[in-house]
Specification:
This protein has 219 residues and is α+β, with helices and mostly antiparallel strands. The chain has one domain. The protein contains ten helices and four strands; from the N terminus they run ααααααββααααββ. The mean pLDDT is 93. Strands 1-2-4-3 form a four-stranded antiparallel sheet.
């Protein structure tokens, strides 16, 4: 059975932000449809509103990755605006979190684990993937600082977060932690004893930090 759904262990793997974001958004709406009985019309309205909101926010598309990151972030906005009057703030946040984080969680973790397990040097493989995604998945909508980048450690600090900026601009900064939690899917795949490095993210911008520290260190 192939556990590497996203092909991270492939030698020629290259992130496809368009395809990946489409999978995330479709899984998000599918989860909402399952959680909300008789909601076909409501989900259809959300999808229509998402397309409209993307067009209204076209000025935020600073490069190709930004277009796909905008799509995912605005999907949260649309669902939040639609469901909050019906379900209340806290229930809606919990539902949006579950719909965004859970559907692909196991697949992301399994794919990351397969990559690390098959790598001759898991630390180097993880750093290489991070650097690739910084360009092809995140892009110019994010600002990165790299205070440490050597054979023993890679410390990436995100000092500007596109997700948070979009959510704050749409009066929904409380949803930023949902985007942060999505990362836990691949973070949990790292086994320091098996892979020879540890990962630390002590805070995020979404949780009130000044930056998001993504720190990888050999042990």
């Amino acid at each position: 059975m192939n556990t590497d759904r996203f092909g991270l262990a492939d030698d020629d793997h290259a992130p496809d932000a368009d395809s990946d974001s489409a999978v995330v958004v479709d899984a998000f709406f599918d989860h909402l449809a399952t959680a909300l009985p008789d909601s076909d019309d409501l989900i259809g309205e959300m999808r229509t509103r998402l397309t409209e909101l993307e067009a209204e926010n076209a000025h935020r598309v600073v490069d190709e990755p930004a277009a796909y990151n905008l799509r995912m972030t605005l999907a949260l906005v649309v669902a939040y605006r639609t469901l909050r009057p019906r379900l209340g703030r806290d229930v809606t946040i919990a539902l949006v979190r579950a719909a965004f984080v859970e559907p692909l969680g196991d697949a992301v973790a399994a794919s990351t684990r397969a990559m690390l397990d098959s790598a001759e040097d898991p630390f180097a493989a993880m750093v290489a993937l991070s650097k690739m995604q910084e360009v092809s998945t995140y892009g110019a909508g994010f600002t990165f600082e790299r205070p440490v980048d050597d054979d023993r450690g890679y410390h990436l600090n995100i000092v500007r977060c596109f997700y948070h900026e979009v959510l704050a601009a749409h009066s929904a900064p409380e949803l930023t932690p949902v985007m942060c939690e999505f990362d836990a899917n691949w973070i949990d795949a790292i086994d320091p004893r098996a892979h020879g490095f540890r990962f630390q993210r002590t805070t995020t911008i979404g949780l009130g930090g000044s930056h998001c520290p993504f720190h990888f260190d050999r042990i």
